[in-house]
Design a protein that fits this description.
The protein is mostly beta strands and 146 residues long. The protein is built from one helix and eleven strands; from the N terminus they run E-E-E-E-E-E-H-E-E-E-E-E.
Length: 146
């Protein structure tokens, strides 16, 4: 892999699965559950992966829903995309939300979410009296039509 990001990873649980890409060229890798839990209809559960990761400086980890779980079962990542700060070195957990009317069983070893490391730049804020004029201005929600 050319110019691959270097990420340190620790298995905190004996059944944890080191992430891998489903297909060559994929952007996201799968996160796998180390526990079996029931996600009741309309409810939220936090599911452990048994992994801790630490990327090179300048990267965050984003956790996103798996499209198949969302489309077929209404299972999504509640705070999507979830951001894990590069300073967090604890277990990666996924907040799953069941948007369907049926209960869903997560089994140990199931792929529950996908994740990607994204580069970021620190921001330096400068307070000013006003912002430069733009065509849109302060027009917000719904300002561009339906």
């Amino acid at each position: 892999m050319v110019n691959a990001l270097k990420v340190k990873i620790v298995k905190l649980h004996q059944d944890a699965t080191i992430p891998k890409y489903a297909h060559a060229g994929d952007v996201c890798f799968d996160l796998v559950s180390v526990e079996s839990v029931e996600v009741a209809a309309g409810r939220v559960v936090v599911v452990g992966t048994g992994l801790a990761m630490q990327p090179e400086p300048g990267y965050e980890l984003q956790i996103r829903p798996r499209s198949g779980l969302a489309a077929k079962h209404g299972i999504t990542v509640l705070n999507s995309p979830a951001t894990l700060e590069p300073t967090y070195t604890g277990e990666i957990k996924v907040i799953l939300h069941n948007t369907s009317t049926d209960s869903y069983s997560v089994k140990k070893g199931d792929r529950i979410a996908q994740a990607v490391f994204k580069e970021y730049r620190p921001v330096e804020f400068t307070e000013v009296d006003k912002l430069a004029a733009t065509e849109r201005g302060a027009r917000g929600l719904g300002s561009s039509g339906k």
